[in-house]
Amino acid sequence: MSSKNKQIDQDPFTVLIDKNLDESIKTDIKKVSKVEVDNEIYGKLAVITGIISYIPLAYEIWKTKDTRNFTNSSLLIAIFSNIMWIVYGLKGNSSTNLWNGILYLSIFCYITIFKILY
Question: What is the pTM of this model?
Fold first, then answer.
């Protein structure tokens, strides 16, 4: 039996329900596809995991007071770079870049202080 004959055999109420169901499904699909994800979430996750990766290093420096692996020039460049990230975050209204700069600047200042003191 063809689909035309099948549709004719159905009562008008069933056909109306099928059409409404089809429209409802299409509407639901459109609603779900409009869900937006904050694109900065990826940057925020990167900052968090990056900072976490420095915790063992910071602990090792605290414990041993050894910062010989960090040259003065590399620390200065890292500090300057992170100051620029802070400026960029402030100018571009990007909280992720701002926090990235602040947190990494803190880490490199921590290392620099230990380098100066010990």
Answer: 0.64
